[in-house]
Amino acid sequence: MEILVFGAGAMGSFIGGLLSRRHKVLLIGRAEHVDAIREQGLRITGKTAMIAKPEAATTVPQRARPDFVFVTTKAYDTANAMGPLERFADRSVFVTLQNGLGNAETIAKTARRVIAGTTAIGVTFVGPGEVRHAGVGDTVFGAWANVGEPEIVRLRDVFAEAGINAELTSDIRSELWSKLVVNASINPLAAIAGVPNGRLVRDKRLLAILETISREAAAVAKAEGAAVDAEELRHRTVLIAKRTAANRGSMLQDLDRHRRTEIEAILGPIIRAAARHKLPVPLTQAFYAVVRAREAAP
Fold first, then answer.
1. Domain tally for the chain?
2. Spatial distance between the Cα atoms of 43 and 56, rounded to a whole number of angstroms
3. Residue 29's pLDDT is what?
4. Do 228 and 174 touch, CB atoms closer than 8 A?
5. Tell me: the pLDDT tens digits for 222-253?
6. Which of 147, 170, 193 is the last residue of a domain?
7. Pair 120, 18 in one domain
8. What distances in angstroms separate CA 238 from CA 178, 211, 245, one per listed residue?
């Protein structure tokens, strides 16, 4: 099978690296990362240890004929990513495991067949040519646009062969909201505190904040019609923080590198939905404001 991973940072490189053991995988990423992979392979350390040998390039070659296209850019780059991927719009199944809400909708404006998913796997970008698998977590897929059970089962089986267990859901929208609640509770807090995920549950003061944000976000998800349970999501959030204890979240990595974060895709939908339903989300609003200020700092 031919698989294209567009925007191969930490997560995209990790998934592409594992899938390359059995399939033809092409990673599209930044020049320094691509150069390192071409010269020495992709080094995966941590809970998974291997040197993978996917193909790598900075632009999509004309010869590419992917069966699956994984869009793994930051959420704010999804729309731009669809430009160079437009020629696969009718032939390939597009897959998103990105953070936040709105990615599947954006992809589906161009691509005919789309699978949306969530994952709680923790991966850290160490440097060009190397990522660290820092935490295990659940992966879930569901149909978003014009895909049937055979395509989703095929994708699940491809992941299983690579050692990534994935579940299927008939209600991917609720699953996306659930992932958003977890992400909103962990990512901004860890980024502002400057700590790995595990510190959030070991420090009682940070844990209290995490649980409060989780409850705020879960109430909004429920108001939006998602089939979620606030207490179950609080428990899931704590469990994921423990399972990914060594992981430095993607938002923390972005702030460390003075890059734009995905705060808009993660907390923005919660704040806007809360306003529509007249629900108070004071901590969520506070973290949104602080992260935006950190982004703008020189």
1. 2
2. 13
3. 97
4. yes
5. 999 999 999 999 999 999 999 999 889 999 99
6. 170
7. yes
8. 13, 8, 10
Within 8 A by CB and 6+ apart from 224, the residues are 177, 273, 277
Q: Are strands 113-119 and 139-145 parallel, antiparallel or unpaired?
A: antiparallel
SS3 235: helix
DSSP 67: S
In this structure, are 8 and 156 located in the same domain? yes
What type of residue is 90? D
The structure tokens listed for 261 are 């974060």
Domain that holds residue 156: 2-170
The token duo for 231 is 């207490």
Q: What is the pLDDT of residue 137?
A: 85
Active site residues: 179
- Amino acid (one-letter) located at 228: V
Does residue 270 or residue 120 have the better pLDDT?
Answer: 270
Selection from 132, 195, 133, 143 nearest residue 168 by Cα: 143
DSSP at 140: E
Domain termination residue (choose one: 170, 199, 217) = 170
Residue 193 is part of a domain; what is its CATH number? 1.10.1040.10
Which run of H or of E encompasses 84? Answer: helix 78-85
- Which tens digit of pLDDT belongs to each residue from 186-195? 999 999 999 9
Q: For residue 126, what is the enclosing H or E element?
A: strand 122-127
